[in-house]
Design brief:
Structural class: mainly beta
Order of helices and strands: HEEEEEEEEEEEEEEEEH
Radius of gyration: 23 Å
CATH superfamily of the largest domain: Galactose-binding domain-like
Strand content: 35-45%
Number of domains: 3
CATH architecture of the largest domain: Sandwich
CATH topology of the largest domain: Jelly Rolls
Number of strands: 16
Number of helices: 2
Shape: globular
Helix content: under 10%
Length: about 375
Protein backbone atom coordinates (compact mmCIF):
# COMPACT_ATOMS: atom_id res chain seq x y z
CA UNK A 1 0.00 0.00 0.00
CA UNK A 2 1.21 3.52 -0.79
CA UNK A 3 2.55 5.20 2.37
CA UNK A 4 0.23 8.18 2.02
CA UNK A 5 -2.72 5.88 1.43
CA UNK A 6 -1.84 3.96 4.58
CA UNK A 7 -1.64 7.18 6.58
CA UNK A 8 -5.00 8.29 5.18
CA UNK A 9 -6.69 5.02 6.07
CA UNK A 10 -5.13 5.17 9.52
CA UNK A 11 -6.39 8.72 10.06
CA UNK A 12 -9.91 7.77 8.99
CA UNK A 13 -9.84 4.73 11.23
CA UNK A 14 -8.66 6.87 14.13
CA UNK A 15 -11.50 9.38 13.70
CA UNK A 16 -14.03 6.59 13.24
CA UNK A 17 -12.88 4.85 16.44
CA UNK A 18 -13.93 7.76 18.65
CA UNK A 19 -16.81 7.15 21.06
CA UNK A 20 -20.18 7.04 19.36
CA UNK A 21 -22.26 10.21 19.29
CA UNK A 22 -24.98 10.07 21.93
CA UNK A 23 -28.40 9.99 20.25
CA UNK A 24 -31.83 10.20 21.88
CA UNK A 25 -34.49 7.49 21.82
CA UNK A 26 -37.36 9.84 22.67
CA UNK A 27 -37.25 13.22 20.95
CA UNK A 28 -40.39 14.33 22.78
CA UNK A 29 -38.43 14.34 26.05
CA UNK A 30 -35.50 16.51 24.94
CA UNK A 31 -35.78 20.15 26.00
CA UNK A 32 -34.54 22.02 22.92
CA UNK A 33 -33.97 25.20 24.94
CA UNK A 34 -31.15 23.51 26.84
CA UNK A 35 -29.07 23.74 23.67
CA UNK A 36 -26.10 26.01 24.30
CA UNK A 37 -26.65 28.15 21.20
CA UNK A 38 -30.38 28.98 21.44
CA UNK A 39 -31.37 32.66 21.46
CA UNK A 40 -34.54 33.95 23.17
CA UNK A 41 -35.86 37.50 22.96
CA UNK A 42 -39.06 39.39 23.78
CA UNK A 43 -40.75 42.48 22.34
CA UNK A 44 -41.17 43.87 25.84
CA UNK A 45 -39.76 43.06 29.27
CA UNK A 46 -40.80 44.59 32.58
CA UNK A 47 -38.11 44.24 35.21
CA UNK A 48 -34.44 43.30 35.06
CA UNK A 49 -34.54 39.65 33.95
CA UNK A 50 -34.13 39.39 30.17
CA UNK A 51 -36.04 36.82 28.14
CA UNK A 52 -32.68 35.29 27.22
CA UNK A 53 -32.59 33.97 30.79
CA UNK A 54 -35.54 31.65 30.04
CA UNK A 55 -33.17 28.77 29.39
CA UNK A 56 -33.06 26.67 32.49
CA UNK A 57 -35.02 27.12 35.68
CA UNK A 58 -35.18 30.53 37.37
CA UNK A 59 -35.65 31.22 41.06
CA UNK A 60 -39.07 31.52 42.69
CA UNK A 61 -39.22 35.17 43.69
CA UNK A 62 -40.74 37.93 41.54
CA UNK A 63 -37.44 39.70 40.95
CA UNK A 64 -35.89 36.54 39.51
CA UNK A 65 -38.64 35.72 36.99
CA UNK A 66 -38.99 37.07 33.47
CA UNK A 67 -41.84 39.59 33.47
CA UNK A 68 -43.62 40.24 30.20
CA UNK A 69 -46.00 42.77 31.70
CA UNK A 70 -49.78 42.79 31.58
CA UNK A 71 -50.41 43.91 27.99
CA UNK A 72 -51.65 41.63 25.23
CA UNK A 73 -49.45 41.56 22.12
CA UNK A 74 -46.11 40.93 23.81
CA UNK A 75 -44.17 38.13 22.13
CA UNK A 76 -41.34 35.71 22.93
CA UNK A 77 -39.19 34.69 19.95
CA UNK A 78 -36.95 31.62 19.92
CA UNK A 79 -34.09 31.15 17.47
CA UNK A 80 -32.90 27.54 17.58
CA UNK A 81 -29.95 28.44 15.30
CA UNK A 82 -30.84 25.41 13.19
CA UNK A 83 -33.99 23.65 12.04
CA UNK A 84 -35.60 21.76 14.92
CA UNK A 85 -38.71 19.63 15.13
CA UNK A 86 -41.23 21.34 17.46
CA UNK A 87 -44.40 19.87 18.90
CA UNK A 88 -44.90 21.17 22.46
CA UNK A 89 -44.20 24.47 24.22
CA UNK A 90 -44.41 24.48 28.02
CA UNK A 91 -44.36 27.65 30.12
CA UNK A 92 -44.29 27.64 33.92
CA UNK A 93 -45.59 30.81 35.57
CA UNK A 94 -43.79 32.24 38.57
CA UNK A 95 -46.95 31.72 40.65
CA UNK A 96 -50.68 31.12 40.28
CA UNK A 97 -52.31 33.94 38.34
CA UNK A 98 -49.12 34.94 36.52
CA UNK A 99 -49.77 33.12 33.26
CA UNK A 100 -51.65 34.03 30.09
CA UNK A 101 -55.03 32.93 28.80
CA UNK A 102 -54.23 32.62 25.11
CA UNK A 103 -51.51 32.94 22.52
CA UNK A 104 -50.79 32.96 18.79
CA UNK A 105 -47.92 30.64 17.88
CA UNK A 106 -45.99 31.11 14.63
CA UNK A 107 -43.02 29.60 12.83
CA UNK A 108 -40.45 31.08 10.48
CA UNK A 109 -37.44 29.98 8.47
CA UNK A 110 -35.75 33.39 8.51
CA UNK A 111 -37.18 35.31 11.47
CA UNK A 112 -38.85 37.79 9.10
CA UNK A 113 -41.78 36.05 7.42
CA UNK A 114 -44.08 34.22 9.85
CA UNK A 115 -46.76 31.57 9.43
CA UNK A 116 -49.29 30.68 12.16
CA UNK A 117 -49.41 27.11 13.44
CA UNK A 118 -52.58 25.57 14.85
CA UNK A 119 -52.72 23.78 18.15
CA UNK A 120 -54.28 23.41 21.56
CA UNK A 121 -53.67 25.97 24.29
CA UNK A 122 -54.21 24.72 27.84
CA UNK A 123 -53.53 25.61 31.46
CA UNK A 124 -53.30 22.49 33.66
CA UNK A 125 -54.34 22.74 37.28
CA UNK A 126 -51.62 24.24 39.46
CA UNK A 127 -49.72 21.78 41.64
CA UNK A 128 -47.08 22.79 44.15
CA UNK A 129 -44.69 25.10 42.33
CA UNK A 130 -46.07 24.10 38.93
CA UNK A 131 -48.27 26.69 37.19
CA UNK A 132 -48.03 25.58 33.59
CA UNK A 133 -49.40 26.99 30.38
CA UNK A 134 -48.92 24.69 27.40
CA UNK A 135 -49.34 24.85 23.65
CA UNK A 136 -49.36 21.59 21.68
CA UNK A 137 -49.17 21.91 17.89
CA UNK A 138 -51.69 19.88 15.92
CA UNK A 139 -48.85 18.87 13.61
CA UNK A 140 -45.17 19.11 14.51
CA UNK A 141 -43.28 21.88 12.70
CA UNK A 142 -39.72 21.71 11.39
CA UNK A 143 -38.54 25.26 11.86
CA UNK A 144 -35.67 27.46 12.97
CA UNK A 145 -37.76 30.18 14.63
CA UNK A 146 -40.83 30.04 16.86
CA UNK A 147 -42.83 32.98 18.21
CA UNK A 148 -45.41 33.01 21.00
CA UNK A 149 -47.57 36.17 21.10
CA UNK A 150 -49.96 36.84 23.94
CA UNK A 151 -53.50 37.48 22.65
CA UNK A 152 -55.77 37.32 25.68
CA UNK A 153 -57.45 40.34 27.27
CA UNK A 154 -54.35 41.13 29.31
CA UNK A 155 -54.47 42.59 32.80
CA UNK A 156 -52.57 39.81 34.56
CA UNK A 157 -48.76 39.64 34.61
CA UNK A 158 -47.01 37.25 32.23
CA UNK A 159 -44.27 36.21 34.63
CA UNK A 160 -42.30 33.03 33.84
CA UNK A 161 -39.57 31.12 35.60
CA UNK A 162 -39.36 28.26 33.10
CA UNK A 163 -39.81 27.83 29.35
CA UNK A 164 -39.32 24.52 27.54
CA UNK A 165 -39.78 23.27 23.97
CA UNK A 166 -39.99 19.64 22.81
CA UNK A 167 -40.27 17.81 19.52
CA UNK A 168 -42.65 15.12 18.33
CA UNK A 169 -42.40 11.43 19.19
CA UNK A 170 -39.51 9.54 17.64
CA UNK A 171 -35.74 9.37 17.83
CA UNK A 172 -33.40 12.36 17.61
CA UNK A 173 -29.80 12.45 16.42
CA UNK A 174 -27.45 14.02 18.93
CA UNK A 175 -25.28 17.03 18.13
CA UNK A 176 -22.75 19.24 19.89
CA UNK A 177 -25.35 21.75 21.10
CA UNK A 178 -27.98 19.51 22.72
CA UNK A 179 -27.78 18.69 26.43
CA UNK A 180 -27.05 15.00 27.10
CA UNK A 181 -28.39 15.25 30.68
CA UNK A 182 -31.86 14.13 29.61
CA UNK A 183 -32.93 11.10 31.63
CA UNK A 184 -36.30 10.30 30.05
CA UNK A 185 -34.95 10.76 26.52
CA UNK A 186 -33.10 7.44 26.74
CA UNK A 187 -34.08 3.81 26.88
CA UNK A 188 -33.32 2.81 29.57
CA UNK A 189 -33.59 6.12 31.49
CA UNK A 190 -30.30 5.63 33.34
CA UNK A 191 -29.03 9.18 33.92
CA UNK A 192 -28.75 9.77 37.68
CA UNK A 193 -27.08 12.17 40.08
CA UNK A 194 -25.99 12.45 43.69
CA UNK A 195 -24.93 15.36 45.86
CA UNK A 196 -23.57 16.25 49.28
CA UNK A 197 -23.11 19.43 51.30
CA UNK A 198 -26.40 21.19 50.48
CA UNK A 199 -28.38 22.80 53.27
CA UNK A 200 -31.67 22.43 51.42
CA UNK A 201 -33.53 22.14 48.17
CA UNK A 202 -36.72 23.65 46.82
CA UNK A 203 -38.73 21.60 44.36
CA UNK A 204 -41.18 18.76 43.98
CA UNK A 205 -38.87 16.14 42.54
CA UNK A 206 -35.08 16.06 42.75
CA UNK A 207 -35.01 13.98 39.56
CA UNK A 208 -35.83 17.23 37.75
CA UNK A 209 -32.14 18.09 37.64
CA UNK A 210 -31.48 15.24 35.19
CA UNK A 211 -34.93 14.96 33.59
CA UNK A 212 -36.27 17.93 31.61
CA UNK A 213 -39.59 16.31 30.71
CA UNK A 214 -41.52 15.47 33.90
CA UNK A 215 -45.30 15.24 33.92
CA UNK A 216 -45.43 18.73 35.44
CA UNK A 217 -42.52 21.15 35.44
CA UNK A 218 -41.70 22.96 38.64
CA UNK A 219 -38.92 24.89 40.31
CA UNK A 220 -35.84 22.87 41.09
CA UNK A 221 -33.47 24.96 43.20
CA UNK A 222 -30.59 23.52 45.22
CA UNK A 223 -29.42 26.09 47.68
CA UNK A 224 -27.06 27.03 50.50
CA UNK A 225 -24.17 25.04 49.13
CA UNK A 226 -20.49 25.75 49.45
CA UNK A 227 -18.71 24.93 52.70
CA UNK A 228 -15.21 25.14 51.27
CA UNK A 229 -12.53 22.49 50.68
CA UNK A 230 -14.53 20.03 48.58
CA UNK A 231 -17.26 19.47 51.14
CA UNK A 232 -19.95 20.23 48.54
CA UNK A 233 -20.10 18.11 45.43
CA UNK A 234 -22.44 17.01 42.66
CA UNK A 235 -21.85 13.97 40.50
CA UNK A 236 -23.65 12.98 37.30
CA UNK A 237 -23.83 9.44 35.99
CA UNK A 238 -24.57 9.99 32.31
CA UNK A 239 -25.45 6.32 31.85
CA UNK A 240 -23.13 5.91 28.86
CA UNK A 241 -19.73 7.00 27.59
CA UNK A 242 -19.76 10.56 26.28
CA UNK A 243 -17.09 12.58 24.50
CA UNK A 244 -17.23 15.52 26.87
CA UNK A 245 -16.98 19.04 25.42
CA UNK A 246 -18.42 21.54 27.88
CA UNK A 247 -20.47 22.02 31.02
CA UNK A 248 -23.37 24.38 31.73
CA UNK A 249 -24.34 25.52 35.24
CA UNK A 250 -27.42 27.67 35.85
CA UNK A 251 -26.89 29.77 38.95
CA UNK A 252 -30.14 30.98 40.47
CA UNK A 253 -30.75 34.72 40.62
CA UNK A 254 -29.80 36.79 43.61
CA UNK A 255 -27.38 34.30 45.13
CA UNK A 256 -24.04 34.88 43.47
CA UNK A 257 -22.24 36.28 46.48
CA UNK A 258 -18.49 36.54 46.01
CA UNK A 259 -18.90 35.32 42.45
CA UNK A 260 -15.50 36.62 41.43
CA UNK A 261 -13.85 34.17 43.80
CA UNK A 262 -15.98 31.08 43.17
CA UNK A 263 -13.71 28.07 42.83
CA UNK A 264 -14.63 24.60 41.67
CA UNK A 265 -13.13 21.56 39.97
CA UNK A 266 -14.65 19.19 37.44
CA UNK A 267 -13.43 15.61 37.16
CA UNK A 268 -14.39 12.82 34.77
CA UNK A 269 -14.09 9.05 34.97
CA UNK A 270 -15.08 6.07 32.88
CA UNK A 271 -16.29 3.89 35.73
CA UNK A 272 -17.13 4.16 39.43
CA UNK A 273 -14.12 4.19 41.72
CA UNK A 274 -13.52 4.43 45.43
CA UNK A 275 -12.79 8.14 45.36
CA UNK A 276 -15.14 9.58 42.78
CA UNK A 277 -18.32 7.60 42.28
CA UNK A 278 -21.81 8.66 43.27
CA UNK A 279 -21.93 6.50 46.40
CA UNK A 280 -18.70 7.62 48.04
CA UNK A 281 -18.02 10.29 50.62
CA UNK A 282 -16.46 13.45 49.19
CA UNK A 283 -12.72 13.87 49.02
CA UNK A 284 -11.96 16.79 51.31
CA UNK A 285 -8.38 17.23 50.18
CA UNK A 286 -8.59 20.27 47.94
CA UNK A 287 -5.10 19.75 46.57
CA UNK A 288 -5.55 16.25 45.17
CA UNK A 289 -7.54 14.82 42.30
CA UNK A 290 -9.71 11.77 42.71
CA UNK A 291 -8.04 8.44 42.17
CA UNK A 292 -8.96 6.99 38.80
CA UNK A 293 -10.37 10.27 37.47
CA UNK A 294 -9.17 13.00 35.14
CA UNK A 295 -9.22 16.73 35.87
CA UNK A 296 -11.43 18.36 33.22
CA UNK A 297 -11.60 21.89 34.61
CA UNK A 298 -9.95 23.84 37.41
CA UNK A 299 -12.01 27.00 37.82
CA UNK A 300 -9.65 28.78 40.19
CA UNK A 301 -10.29 32.32 39.01
CA UNK A 302 -12.85 34.22 36.99
CA UNK A 303 -16.40 35.24 37.69
CA UNK A 304 -19.75 33.56 37.19
CA UNK A 305 -23.02 35.34 36.48
CA UNK A 306 -26.66 34.84 37.30
CA UNK A 307 -28.20 32.39 34.87
CA UNK A 308 -26.43 30.00 32.56
CA UNK A 309 -22.64 29.80 32.60
CA UNK A 310 -20.69 27.66 30.14
CA UNK A 311 -17.28 26.14 30.79
CA UNK A 312 -15.08 24.34 28.27
CA UNK A 313 -13.77 20.99 29.49
CA UNK A 314 -10.55 19.21 28.67
CA UNK A 315 -11.40 16.56 26.11
CA UNK A 316 -12.30 13.29 27.80
CA UNK A 317 -14.43 10.24 27.07
CA UNK A 318 -16.23 9.32 30.26
CA UNK A 319 -19.47 8.42 31.96
CA UNK A 320 -19.16 10.18 35.33
CA UNK A 321 -18.82 13.95 35.78
CA UNK A 322 -18.18 15.31 39.25
CA UNK A 323 -18.15 18.97 40.35
CA UNK A 324 -16.57 19.99 43.66
CA UNK A 325 -17.21 23.50 44.95
CA UNK A 326 -14.88 25.48 47.21
CA UNK A 327 -17.17 28.44 47.87
CA UNK A 328 -16.97 29.21 51.62
CA UNK A 329 -19.92 31.60 51.87
CA UNK A 330 -22.64 28.93 51.97
CA UNK A 331 -24.98 31.13 49.94
CA UNK A 332 -25.00 29.93 46.33
CA UNK A 333 -27.96 28.42 44.51
CA UNK A 334 -28.16 26.53 41.24
CA UNK A 335 -31.07 25.10 39.32
CA UNK A 336 -29.69 23.10 36.41
CA UNK A 337 -26.65 21.30 35.03
CA UNK A 338 -26.05 20.66 31.33
CA UNK A 339 -23.37 18.57 29.63
CA UNK A 340 -22.49 18.87 25.95
CA UNK A 341 -20.73 16.33 23.79
CA UNK A 342 -17.91 16.71 21.34
CA UNK A 343 -19.01 15.89 17.80
CA UNK A 344 -16.08 15.61 15.34
CA UNK A 345 -16.23 16.47 11.68
CA UNK A 346 -17.71 13.60 9.63
CA UNK A 347 -15.06 11.20 8.38
CA UNK A 348 -16.56 11.58 4.91
CA UNK A 349 -15.34 15.17 4.85
CA UNK A 350 -11.84 14.03 5.67
CA UNK A 351 -12.00 11.46 2.91
CA UNK A 352 -13.41 13.97 0.43
CA UNK A 353 -10.53 16.31 1.14
CA UNK A 354 -7.79 13.68 0.82
CA UNK A 355 -8.99 11.41 -1.98
CA UNK A 356 -8.61 14.02 -4.78
CA UNK A 357 -5.08 14.66 -3.56
CA UNK A 358 -4.31 10.95 -3.71
CA UNK A 359 -5.76 10.66 -7.22
CA UNK A 360 -3.60 13.55 -8.36
CA UNK A 361 -0.52 11.93 -6.88
CA UNK A 362 -1.34 8.66 -8.64
CA UNK A 363 -1.78 10.36 -12.03
CA UNK A 364 1.60 12.08 -11.69
CA UNK A 365 3.33 8.82 -10.74
Amino acid sequence: MHVLSFVTVSLIATFASAAAIVDYDFRQNVNLLNADNVLISATSTTGTVAASRLRGNLDENNAAAWNGGTTSGNAITIDFQTVRNVKTIRMNAQQTGNGIGGAIVEKSSDGISWSPVSGTFSTPAASGTSNETNFVLNSAADTRYMRVTRNDAGGTPWRLNDLRVYGDTGALAGDRHLDVVARSAYNPPNVTWARSGFSGEDGINATGLVDDSPSSISRQIWYSFGQGNKSTWVELDLGRLVELRSLGINFAAGYINNSNSLKFEVHGSTSPNSSGDVTSAPNTDASNNFAGSTLLLDHATGSVVEGLNYFDLNYFVGRYVRIDFFEPTDSLRFSDLMVYQYVPEPTSLLGAAIVPFLIGRRRRA
